[in-house]
Write a structure and sequence with these properties.
about 120 residues, mainly beta, Immunoglobulin-like, 5-stranded mixed beta sheet, 4-stranded mixed beta sheet, 11 strands, about 0% helix, elongated
């Protein structure tokens, strides 16, 4: 999980797959939530085919900790699909940034996820 210094704008991109195939979100109602250690807030994403993206503005970041992203898809058959994924962790000091892949610095604050 990437650790990112609180206060930075974060570009979040989520690719949706179903049985290994890109899942086209065209014509479906999609709700996206950012879940912090103490709250759940809906975000308004941009949707392009199977990709959901949004910016988590540094000015909107209030607390450090682990953030999850949840996606709810309502298809024409009124069937809800809900899934969530670990997103990133906001940290209070620059020396704590990085990630599990051994990064020492994050030059591009982008979190890409797959569901």
């Amino acid at each position: 999980m990437k650790r990112i210094r609180i206060g930075n704008n974060i570009n979040v991109s989520i690719s949706i797959y179903n049985n290994g195939m890109a899942y086209d979100l065209t014509g479906k109602t999609v709700k996206t939530y950012l879940i912090s250690p103490v709250s759940k807030s809906e975000v308004v994403p941009s949707i392009n085919s199977n990709n959901i993206s949004f910016i988590f503005s540094g000015s909107d970041q209030k607390i450090c900790g682990k953030y999850n992203v949840a996606v709810e898809i309502l298809s024409g058959s009124n069937k809800n699909t809900v899934d969530s994924i670990d997103g990133f962790k906001l940290v209070d000091r620059t020396c704590k940034i990085g990630g599990e892949n051994g990064e020492l610095n994050i030059e591009s604050l982008v979190v890409s996820l797959e569901i």
